[in-house]
Amino acid sequence: MSQSSELQGGCVWKGAEMRQNDRWIKEFPAAMLDQIDAAVGKVKDLDWRQVNRHNFMLTDDEGFFATVREELENGCGMVKMRGLDIGRYSEEQLRRVWYALGWYLGTPMYQNYFGEVMRDIRDEGMGVGAKLYGATLDSSGKQFLSSGARTLSSGQLRFHTDRCDVVGLLCVRQASEGGVSKLASSATVYNEIRKRRPDLHALLCKSIPRSRFGEEPGGEHVVYDLPIFGVRNGKLTSHFSLTYIENAQMMPIARKLTDAEHAAIQMLMDVAEEECFEMRFAPGDIQLLNNHVIYHGRTAFKDDESRGHSRMLMRLWLSMPNSRALPEDHAILWGDVGAGKPHGGIAQPATAVAT
What we know:
Elements: H1 15-18, E1 25-27, H2 30-42, H3 64-74, E2 78-82, H4 91-105, E3 107-108, E4 118-121, H5 126-133, E5 135-137, E6 143-145, H6 147-151, E7 157-160, E8 166-173, E9 177-178, E10 181-185, H7 186-196, H8 198-204, E11 207-211, E12 223-227, E13 230-232, E14 235-237, H9 242-249, H10 259-275, E15 277-279, E16 286-290, E17 294-298, E18 301-302, E19 312-319, H11 331-334
Parallel strand pairs: 1-2
Antiparallel strand pairs: 2-16, 3-19, 4-19, 5-6, 7-17, 8-16, 8-19, 9-18, 10-15, 10-17, 11-12, 13-14
Helix pairs in contact: 7-8, 7-10, 8-10
């Protein structure tokens, strides 16, 4: 399939239809919830990082995890797993549960260069995020935060993808206001731009300069080229984060984007907004998104500590056993681009210790 062809399949959807569709909502089988309860007791003396499929035993008689993986890879590209009663567990027990579920679904990957495989997503303040993930100054002297730093604030997050096959978020607490998840099919965005402006679509299928700002040590000085749209064997992968593109434009070594390329990127953002839908997490909800075919964003939020409403999600990055093959020129970001191979994650320094 060439990149001039229209994408087909369940990954092509519009927000208006998904608001009325529950195909992506998967309820935990009652028997599995009982097994989770039992398994929590058996690993009570283990650090959550030691939990895996072998010591956190679940019997998936209904093929629940296979159904979830199939929907993520060959369906609409997103799943909300529902039914986990988080009131039954302490925060540390929840980590054991979520990490175990991650291993049943795929393989947890490193999310940053200091070795985290599970990251709490909460408002830690701009200063904390900038210290952990990096910040620089733009041409006007204003602070420019890395993508990771923005995640740890209460601010809005623009549509983007993460550097893994599937990103999973377990909601522990929700904010008092805002924090709404915005989801769009990148396959639909691809088709719409192709239909409306094939000239701009063609530019998004060609290399766009990116930075590794905040991803690897010293990465703020590294620029690489990657298309926003790539297709192999009829399947899309769209890796997109405007922050990394903007940061590359701040570097003298990066090729400057043309006006047409800027227009193409802006059209992508506009169409994603047109075709998205919004969902709000409830405590216990687990959201799984296939980054190859889903853009996600977030509205700004406000916490109310006095009422116990301080938004906190536990995030896993997963490499999936049934993942698609990626275009050869995407190896610079993903590593091995073969189907079912470990995709993405952040390479670790030799001294890194998983946390």
